[in-house]
Amino acid sequence: MQRTDLLKIAKTYGDPVYVYDSEKIISQFHRLTNAFKGVKKLQLNYAAKALSNITILRLMNSLGSGLDTVSIQEVRLGLLAGFKPSDIIYTPNGVSLEEIEEASALGVRINIDNLSILEQFGSKHPNVPVCIRINPHVMAGGNSNISVGHIDSKFGISIHQIPHLLRIVKLTNMNVNGIHMHTGSDILDIDVFLYASEILFETAKNFDNLEFIDFGSGFKVPYKDGDIETNVEELGSKLTQRFNAFCKEYGRELTLAFEPGKFLVSEAGFFLAKVNVVKQTTSTVFASVDSGFNHLIRPMLYGATHFIENISNPNGRERYYSVVGYICETDTFASNKRIKEISEGDILCFRNAGAYCFTMASNYNSRYRPAEVLWHEGKAILIRERETFEDLIKNQVDVKELFAPAPEKATAK
């Protein structure tokens, strides 16, 4: 996408606005599949939680991707987007047995990550194939909030509980057709990932009827020019060799599965926001935009870095700015960053805004969530309308008869 395209989108659809480049999503999908071209059976299941707009889901379906879901709502979105139930895997955490049974009734594949639900589900539905999520006790990921495979994580069944797991499987006579792990997001060290994979291979030997092994995802993408990223080509070469060797040892060809989310959509996303005020204090120059962590919470929640550029003044001289939002508390996108000189009314572009950005947006401060636009084959296509005041109060119940207006303003006595 060109800078002029983004400026035109901001003018046409208003700001703030999220923009997604379909060409980048497609190229990332092909890059990952090519990295594992040596595997006879490969299944990529797009992690819907990263960006769940139904048009994006339809794009993924058109590429031949499956879908990784974490809620019954995501399952239903996937079905609405045209995914076959057999191409959807449901990997919840801490949900009720009833929700898992609801997903199972829809025909999707089930992934269970705790012994309690495993025993309950296996006792009631021994003939329903189940994947089991293992916690390999490997610390990986760029932030403690997104590192999910360590010993203190709430995710997965501990490798130290394998004997208990096997006892449940034997007593219920349930059918285990898959083994799964996910160590965390923003993984850089391929050797750590391969080490965790060995734990998964060793665990897989306990089950005779496996159809697939799911290695999760968490591949790091670059957040700025020159930034480091996961070398998926090197990982593909090394893991393909080891996976194929394991399949021979196991006695049949299994499917190698991944559930990429951020890797596919992060770099495809742009968030555009207009500068309302340039404010100089005794120590800082603030650029205050018409947005906040209600629209893009990752910097405040994770300390995430989003490269910010002034697309209205690409040739200006660089100055130091702290980019902040309009939420009525600390609301900082970036502190003391070099950005081309900013004037009020300029449009700032936040890069890597495709994953876990709009999906985590809220109506905090009673603000509206922004529009979403897909840039596809040289055209801007609206895929979500900007919210209005009617959307804000849509599900509120205004019980007017409970409280009458005060006859006069209260005064101190």
Labels describing this entry:
413 residues, alpha/beta, TIM Barrel, Lyase, Ornithine Decarboxylase, Chain A, domain 1, 2 domains, 9-stranded mixed sheet, 8-stranded parallel beta barrel, 12 helices, 30% helix, 23% strand, lysine biosynthesis, De-COase2_C, De-COase2_pyr-phos_BS, pyridoxal phosphate binding
What do these coordinates show?
The protein is 30% helix and 23% strand. The strands form 2 sheets. Strands 1, 11, 12, 13, 14, 15, 16, 17 and 18 form a 9-stranded mixed β-sheet that branches. An 8-stranded parallel barrel has the order 2-3-4-5-6-8-9-10, surrounded by 5 helices. It starts with a helix and ends in a 20-residue tail after the last helix. It has helices at residues 3-13, 22-35, 54-63, 72-80, 97-105, 115-124, 162-172, 190-204, 232-250, 262-265, 298-302, 389-393; strands at residues 17-21, 42-47, 66-69, 88-90, 109-112, 130-135, 157-158, 176-180, 212-214, 255-258, 269-280, 285-289, 308-310, 318-324, 332-340, 347-350, 371-376, 379-384. Helix 9 links the parallel strand 9 (212-214) and strand 10 (255-258). Mean pLDDT is 93; it is low at 140-150. It has 2 domains: 22-264, Alanine racemase (TIM Barrel), CATH 3.20.20.10; 269-388, Lyase, Ornithine Decarboxylase, Chain A, domain 1. It has 413 residues and is an alpha/beta fold. Helix 2 (22-35) packs across helix 9 (232-250), helix 6 (115-124) packs parallel to helix 7 (162-172) and helix 8 packs parallel to helix 9. The protein is globular.
* Gross geometry: globular
- The CATH topology of the largest domain, please? TIM Barrel
Task: Report helical residue fraction.
Answer: 25-40%
Oligomeric state as shown: single chain
CATH architecture of the largest domain: Alpha-Beta Barrel
Kindly report the name of the CATH homologous superfamily of the largest domain.
Alanine racemase
Mean pLDDT, as a whole number?
93
Total count of helical runs of at least 4 residues: 12
Return the string of H and E elements: HEHEHEHEHEHEEHEHEHEHEEHEEEEEEH
The radius of gyration computed from the alpha-carbon positions, rounded to a whole number of angstroms, is 24 Å
List low-confidence stretches.
140-150
The total domain count is 2
Number of strand segments: 18
End-to-end span in angstroms?
A: 64 Å
| Amount of beta strand | 15-25%
Query: Structural class of the helix and strand makeup?
Result: alpha/beta
CATH class identity of the largest domain: Alpha Beta
Describe the biggest sheet? 9 strands, mixed
